[in-house]
Amino acid sequence: MHKEPIIGIDLGTTNSCAAIVEDNGNVKLIPYKGGEYTIPSIFAIDDKGNELIGYEAKRQWQLNPRNTVYGSKRLVGRTFGSDVVDTMKKVVAYNMRPGKKNEVTLDVGKKEFTLQEVSAKILGKIREVASNYLKTPIKRAVVTVPAYFNDRQRQSVKDAGKLIDLEVVRIINEPTAAALAYGVGKGLKEKVVIYDLGGGTFDVSIIEIRDRVFEVKSTGGDVFLGGIDFDNAIIHHVLKDFAAKTGIDLATDPVAMQRIKDLAERTKIDLSARDEVPFNIPFITMTSQGQPLNIEMKFTRKMLEQLTNHLVDRTLQMVARVLVDSGLSTKDVDEVMLVGGQTRMPIVQDRLTKFFGKPPSKGVHPDEAVAIGAALYAHSLQDDTNLRIQLLDVIPMAIGLEKAGGAFHVVFPRNAPIPNAKQLLATTSMDNQTELAMRIFQGDHEMVARNDMLGEFTFSGIQQARAGGVQVEITFDVNVEGILSMRARDPATGREMNTTVRVTQS
Ligand SMILES: Nc1ncnc2c1ncn2[C@@H]1O[C@H](COP(=O)(O)OP(=O)(O)OP(=O)(O)O)[C@@H](O)[C@H]1O
Ligand SMILES: [Mg+2]
């Protein structure tokens, strides 16, 4: 074992997984107590004040829904009051509030946690299990994120690592990692589609593999589309049915909701293997006269398909867009790879088979491929490695600046290769102006208001002159991880200016 091994971590919305490449070159998944290779991405505090992470947290979530955080990856980099956050509030029992920068913070066990802190708890648990298993301290990791994460969301994962002194040496995209798990060491020459439908997010990437070169042609996704939405479709149906039968709205009862949520997910999973499943919960609530009431229903696979058809449609629309972006047609695709637990749903596989005219390949394990790919990449970053991998990735959404009137001036279009740098010349607009500020956004809309703000960059130390008299050369740098930095200089003197970034969230 390396003295300072780098592990690969798939920090999932529902499940997390870690792996490492051993000295003999074999990839090893890190097992948890009980022999599982994934742990639930759940953090809780019980009534005695104990912190629980993973299975321990999941085991008690029905009884302690208010202090059990799950699905928090969906909130990373989000603004309090945004649609996404409002939607989440309706389905989770834990309390959210606005933080200092209008980011989301969570109340758990009477304490307030930032999302970085929650991610750090889960990363910390993974690190602890890995350290015990490998019998060596772990200080470094490659961590994966959805390809469709923006700059701010990526930054947040790096910050989470810092909180526990875990150096996130590299952020890589989940579908790209899955492609590594599939292709490293096979001497392939193929174009593959990675279709990753997990618990919280959907990603699709088209990747050209030429032996050890993995070139992402295009990527797309939706960080708010995943297994949780399939569960919610069942939950809504159950609530509606119950309200119609009894006039009682169970949505206001967190313990009842947690029981329904639990069974909804199990029902969904069972329906991947069976045509019909009962949905019974005894004593879910009581009438005003104190009579116990039960949920007694039945779900068929057909019903589930009807309730979730629109979700599968959305994934296929994105697949179509990504194909167009790559300039390829379905015929050019050699393999379609399924990643993420939700791809076990038969209709997802059927629809993909129709779309591509051939069945998806089972070339990778849907739950483990991302962690394995992360471990392979981690291994390639070790000092004394003989594994060479070249990753050529892209940014998922355009990055640019705000123009007058709120229009979005694109500096890097979506699918621009990374790393990447661009320069732009600006001039002062007032006499004796010493500072220049610009607001930077990421997204695919023409108006900045509909995109995510990455920050307000201020360049100071401009020499005093009349309006339009000085130029400022601004450099936009997107690193290999898809994270932006900016700097500015005076092209006349070559002098670098001071740059400060303020991340106020609008
Ligand atoms: N047999 C199955 N049929 C349908 N859905 C399933 C099945 N098995 C697991 N799932 C669903 O897969 C989802 C979890 O997938 P996965 O572990 O890949 O997600 P994740 O990596 O945690 O999330 P993400 O990648 O979105 O951050 C859950 O919603 C789960 O209900
Ligand atoms: Mg995943």
TrEMBL record:
InterPro entries reported in the protein's UniProt record: ATPase_NBD, Heat_shock_70_CS, HSP70_peptide-bd_sf, Hsp_70_fam
PROSITE patterns, A to Z: HSP70_1, HSP70_2, HSP70_3
Pfam families xrefs: HSP70
Gene3D superfamilies (alphabetical): 3.30.420.40, Actin, Chain A, domain 4, Substrate Binding Domain Of DNAk, Chain A, domain 1
Recorded GO MF terms: ATP binding; ATP-dependent protein folding chaperone
Keywords: ATP-binding, Chaperone, Nucleotide-binding
Sequence similarity: Belongs to the heat shock protein 70 family.
PANTHER family: HEAT SHOCK PROTEIN 70KDA
Protein name (database record): Chaperone protein DnaK
Organism: Myxococcus stipitatus (strain DSM 14675 / JCM 12634 / Mx s8)
